Amino acid sequence: MTSSLPALTEVPDPQFVISGGNVRIATYTWGDEADPTVVLVHGFASSTRDNWVNTGWVRDLLRAGYRVLAIDQRGHGLSDKPHDARDYDVRRLVADVEVVLDTYLVDEASYVGYSLGARVGWEVTKDLPDRILRTVLGGVPDGVPLSRLDLDQARAFVEHGTPVEDRVTQNYVSLIERVPGNDLRALLAIAEGMRFSSAADPDPATAPGQPILFATGTLDAIIEGSRALAAACPQGRFVEIPGRHHFNAPGARAFREAAVAFLGES
């Protein structure tokens, strides 16, 4: 039993893809290239390891017969971490994923994203209707990503160590500090970039047409917005993740099981 545990959290060396602004995007692959591909894109202040490997997603997808292609979003993990908010427009994050797909010559794939990765996934799914076959969007924001974070308090904390008083912002800071290697200034730039992005809000009027599973924790404040986005999609479906809030939903077995079952439907 003990000897098998390291394999559950094993991450291969990253392969770097150069995207817009000469930013290096760290990517990771598991499985056979002949198997159907699932692309994994993590949430804010997380990483491939934190969101998908340590929580069992990669393991379960491999067992289900998929090839896994995971991405550290810019500003996260082992990808480059610029400090300029202009490097984090939503469309730049979307372009990063699409450049990775092109570089790996992926003609067809399913997409799984959480939180910020889900917001990016909404756009990727719209952009690539012939390449993204099925999509899972967990904890997808129903408005501007990271809009609940108090930028002034976060900036004061990053620059001067001023204690954060806003509860939601405290949660984000705790999330940032939990993951080794996080760059506070880069993550603040992401929050600023999302706030001022012209494409920040998911538009139900232009919802993607592919089958999409929306999954949000029952304790997550955005659950009704996520449910509304699912209803707006021609082939949308919604599932609650019991007893989970926004920050611990990715580790829920119920979330993984629902996603794997959904991806396996024909």
Write the layout of secondary structure elements.
Elements: H1 5-8, E1 15-19, E2 23-30, E3 37-41, H2 48-53, H3 57-63, E4 67-71, H4 90-103, E5 109-114, H5 116-127, E6 132-138, H6 151-160, H7 167-178, H8 184-195, E7 212-217, H9 223-232, E8 236-241, H10 253-263
Summarize the structure in short.
With 266 residues, the chain is an alpha/beta fold. It has helices spanning 5-8, 48-53, 57-63, 90-103, 116-127, 151-160, 167-178, 184-195, 223-232, 253-263; strands at residues 15-19, 23-30, 37-41, 67-71, 109-114, 132-138, 212-217, 236-241.
**Distance, first to last CA:** 35 Å
Strand residue content: 15-25%
Reading side by side through the largest sheet, how are the strands ordered? 1-2-4-3-5-6-7-8
Please summarize the sheet with the most strands. Answer: 8 strands, mixed
Q: What value does the Rg take, in angstroms? A: 17 Å
Overview of this protein structure:
The chain is an alpha/beta fold. It is 37% helix and 18% strand. The protein contains 10 helices and 8 strands. The chain has helices spanning 5-8, 48-53, 57-63, 90-103, 116-127, 151-160, 167-178, 184-195, 223-232, 253-263, and strands at residues 15-19, 23-30, 37-41, 67-71, 109-114, 132-138, 212-217, 236-241. Strands 1-2-4-3-5-6-7-8 form an 8-stranded mixed β-sheet, sandwiched between helices. The chain is globular.
Question: Could you name the key traits of this structure?
Answer:
disordered N terminus, 10 helices, alpha/beta, 266 residues, eight-stranded mixed β-sheet
